[in-house]
């Protein structure tokens, strides 16, 4: 039997993707830390920013590549068809418009507007890093030119993952969202349901 409040196991912070990773990044840590300090969702945007940067710059070869590879980064754009994970951020404008007149419409439009704004901020912070990574990998120049489009797509994917998979850790009367790969992989099947 398990007693109430009994610790079964602990996951070290180093095994998570957290604000520590975002704020400690060599290239973009300082501006992401300033973003966190603004409040009003800045921490979520910073977490999305580091996830986007790692995915687009390093892909599966990065420190958390295998975990990032299992997240729902939909390659199909615009997101009209079957998705790996259903979320209003993947819906087409027509699908959102079908909600018009319901309470869900304002929520759907609101979250999409917030993510669009977050995407602009993240592009300004990680865009240079992404373009440099593309150049260093020897990608064609047109891929470098479309880096901002790739960032837009990746921001949606990052937000879908954070909004549906992140765990909240309470520490020193503060709450912090973090992605916990071990727990995330334990609660999701290889094929999403």
User: What characterizes the major β-sheet?
Assistant: 2 strands, antiparallel
The portion of residues assigned to helices is 40-55%
Low-confidence stretches: 77-84
Q: Structural class per helix/strand content?
A: mainly alpha
Calculate Rg over CA atoms: 17 Å
**Shape call:** globular
Query: How much is the average pLDDT?
Result: 85
Distance between the termini: 30 Å
Portion in beta strands: 5-15%
Helical region count? Answer: 9
Notable traits:
193 residues; mainly alpha; 2 strands; globular
Q: Strands, helices and their partners?
A:
Blueprint: H1 19-23, H2 29-37, H3 42-58, H4 65-70, H5 93-97, H6 103-136, H7 141-145, H8 147-165, E1 167-171, E2 174-178, H9 181-186
Antiparallel strand pairs: 1-2
Helix pairs in contact: 2-3, 3-6, 3-8, 6-8
3D architecture notes:
This protein is mostly helical. 55% of the residues lie in helices and 5% in strands. The chain has nine helices and two strands. The chain has helices spanning 19-23, 29-37, 42-58, 65-70, 93-97, 103-136, 141-145, 147-165, 181-186, and strands spanning 167-171, 174-178. Strands 1-2 form a two-stranded antiparallel sheet. α3 runs parallel beside α6 and α3 packs across α8 (147-165). Residues 77-84 have low confidence and may be disordered.
Can I get a quick summary?
The chain has 193 residues and is mainly alpha-helical. Helices cover 55% and strands 5% of the residues.
């Amino acid at each position: 039997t398990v007693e109430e409040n009994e610790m079964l196991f602990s996951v070290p912070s180093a095994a998570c993707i957290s604000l520590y990773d975002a704020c400690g990044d060599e290239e973009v840590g300082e501006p992401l830390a300033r973003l966190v300090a603004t409040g009003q969702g800045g921490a979520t945007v910073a977490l999305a920013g580091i996830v986007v940067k790692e995915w687009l710059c390093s892909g599966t070869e990065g420190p958390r590549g295998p975990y990032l590879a299992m997240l729902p980064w939909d390659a199909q754009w615009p997101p009209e068809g079957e998705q790996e994970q259903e979320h209003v951020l993947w819906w087409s404008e027509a699908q959102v418009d079908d909600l018009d007149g319901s309470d869900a419409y304002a929520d759907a439009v609101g979250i999409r507007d917030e993510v669009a704004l977050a995407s602009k901020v993240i592009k300004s912070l990680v865009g240079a890093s992404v373009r440099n990574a593309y150049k260093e990998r020897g990608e064609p120049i047109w891929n470098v030119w479309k880096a901002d489009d790739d960032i837009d797509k990746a921001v949606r994917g990052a937000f879908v993952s954070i909004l549906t998979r992140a765990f909240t850790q309470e520490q020193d009367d503060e709450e912090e969202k973090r992605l916990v790969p071990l727990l995330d992989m334990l609660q999701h099947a290889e094929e999403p349901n």
